[in-house]
Amino acid sequence: MSNTCCFHQIFLCWCLMVCFYSPVKSDELHLLLNLKSALNKSTTIVLDSWGEVNSICSFNGITCNDEGFVKEIELSGLKLTGVLPLDSMCQLQSLEKLSFGYNSLHGPISEELNYCVKLQYLDLGNNLFSGSFPDISSLTQLKSLHLNNCGFSGVFPWKMLGKMTKLTVLSLGDNPLDRSPFPNQIPKLKKLNWLYLANCSIEGKIPPAIGDLTELINLELEHNHLSGEIPMEISKLHKLWQLELFNNNLTGKLPVGLRNLTKLENFDASTNNLEGDISEVGYLNNLVSLHLYKNKFNGEVPPELGELKKLVNLSLYDNMLTGRLPQKLGSWSSFDFIDVSENLLTGPIPPYMCDKGTMRGLLMVQNRISGKIPATYGNCTTLKRFRVNNNSLSGVVPAGIWGLPVADIVDIAYNRFEGPITSDIKNAKEMGILSVGYNRLSGELPEVISEATSLVKIEINDNQFSGKIPQGIGVLKRLNVLKFQNNMLSGSIPESLGSCLSISDINMAGNSLSGKIPSCLGSLSTLNSLNLSRNELSGKIPGSLSTLKLNLFDLSYNRLTGPIPQTLSIEAYNGSLVGNPGLCSSTFRLRSFKRCRPDSSMSKDVRVLIVCLALGATILLASLGCFCIQRGLKEEKLVIH
Ligand SMILES: *[C@@H]1O[C@H](CO)[C@@H](O)[C@H](O)[C@H]1NC(C)=O
Ligand SMILES: *[C@@H]1O[C@H](CO)[C@@H](O)[C@H](O)[C@H]1NC(C)=O
Ligand SMILES: *[C@@H]1O[C@H](CO)[C@@H](O)[C@H](O)[C@H]1NC(C)=O
Ligand SMILES: *[C@@H]1O[C@H](CO)[C@@H](O)[C@H](O)[C@H]1NC(C)=O
Ligand SMILES: *[C@@H]1O[C@H](CO)[C@@H](O)[C@H](O)[C@H]1NC(C)=O
Ligand SMILES: *[C@@H]1O[C@H](CO)[C@@H](O)[C@H](O)[C@H]1NC(C)=O
Ligand SMILES: *[C@@H]1O[C@H](CO)[C@@H](O)[C@H](O)[C@H]1NC(C)=O
Ligand SMILES: *[C@@H]1O[C@H](CO)[C@@H](O)[C@H](O)[C@H]1NC(C)=O
Ligand SMILES: *[C@@H]1O[C@H](CO)[C@@H](O)[C@H](O)[C@H]1NC(C)=O
Description:
This is Receptor-like protein kinase HAIKU2. The protein is mostly beta strands and 641 residues long.
């Protein structure tokens, strides 16, 4: 308070001074040159025209009034750095506009800004200022005030807004301000058409008086700590084009009368605690983008959503919505994406959402959606994500789905799909994740899967795939996870897997794979999990596997024979080797396996023994047991009986 008093005195003093002092243009030149010199030299190249030889009115970024005095300074987006010399700038008598947005200016903003009494437009937004913002109550002519995202902290002087009744644009969001209730000065700014108060620590309720701001076309209150209900007075904002309320803690229902906001194009009330049905939004005929995800909405998706002619983005995930999706949904406009995951939706997938050829995302994970995948999506070459896992979908997957050229995820797991993965997959050049587990898919995996070179995860587990694993799978250099378990795959494990150097998880359990375990698997240094249990693998366990550090290791129930490599004989792997009656143990650690007979011992060990002998180890020692350490490899004990 004392601060403002003091300031008013100074202001008066200054006013008396200037009243007897008629400014001249040469002063303005020096004021501008002073501004230039306050800015960092390395960033003022754009101000090269600012010099003694030019008229100030021809300076880059300067607009003069009819008398040749500076009226506007427009220097936004020029990467300027430095500290603004507000004391001298505000001596520019006729200054009405100061525009410094989108630079890298720093330092505090001082109360001297109050001297810019004629300012109508002030933009300091998107800079790196610090400290709290001063009370600038003198700037009663302001129409636009942009202070968003410029680093102001502490208490904001909300009271000053009471004096700024001409404001049409107020943008204060994205500043780390102290927590504050919704400022009651704001609903009195009747001329406001643009209010950006997102992410600036507003708490408590949205006041019903917000309904007085009938000129508003944009109201953004997202990323705050607002609670309580959305006041029904909001439906008086007939001109509203955008309403952003997401990421607060709003409760209750969507207000009755919301449907009156017929100009609304963008509505986002996601990530709140809202409940009740969403029937009001069905009447918002101009909606382009509707986001209501992460709330507790229930009831049906309004059938009217299917008639919205401009709808482009629809995100309703993580609610408790029931019923069918309107079948004509997204068919009218250049539809972009739908995410209705994690609801209780039933009925078929609306078939026309890609009709305009622009759709990028179809996400309907975890619902009770049934029927087939509409053939139209096989043609939808713009799709980046196709995820319908955990539904009740069935039928044959349209071939084009496998070959979607820009899709990075195709996820249809946990459904009742049947039929094969077709060779169209060779076109899926961007596909990182192919997740089709827990279906009734069948047939052979196409060899050309190796042409889908972006693949990171292939999850085809728990289906009825048969035939061989494509030999070329090892050319997939980014492959990280391979889940092939619980199918009817046969033949051998491809040697080429040894060149999948990024792989960490291989599960081929529960198939009919035969032949040897390729010893090259031992060279996969990133391998963390290897499960080959319940197959028909035979031969010895490759000694190379000893070098791997596996969290999960399972070779149980195969037809493996011969000695178990020493380092695999540890308790953590207990059970990993059961069900292979042909395996034997050469240590005392795995009591459940038969002991290896010396003459059936590993030939390598025999060779080591011979070397031992040849080196002149005593015959006496040899009869008790010879301990040798194989250089470069892990310790291998040889016990002789
Ligand atoms: C001026 O800019 C340079 C390069 O961006 C920077 O290193 C220097 O610290 C800046 N000086 C001031 C006074 O901002
Ligand atoms: C919120 O504002 C802070 C600055 O106060 C900024 O760093 C952050 O990115 C903003 N958050 C969002 C989600 O825009
Ligand atoms: C949100 O509101 C509910 C009910 O009013 C309250 O229980 C909860 O603590 C609030 N959550 C946060 C993060 O403020
Ligand atoms: C919605 O608008 C109609 C017609 O303008 C009006 O009669 C009705 O009272 C309004 N409803 C609300 C809740 O504002
Ligand atoms: C739809 O959402 C996408 C992705 O978030 C965004 O890039 C696009 O601008 C949105 N379109 C409209 C019209 O809001
Ligand atoms: C599938 O969805 C149900 C709820 O509908 C959920 O309980 C279950 O965990 C989900 N299963 C998977 C594998 O995601
Ligand atoms: C896919 O596109 C082709 C060519 O544009 C068209 O002939 C065919 O009917 C389309 N199929 C579907 C199912 O939309
Ligand atoms: C290996 O995979 C099979 C089949 O999915 C599973 O039953 C078994 O528990 C897995 N082994 C381990 C150690 O998890
Ligand atoms: C290891 O397996 C054997 C036989 O399967 C069992 O008796 C023993 O309890 C298991 N030990 C541990 C630590 O799981």
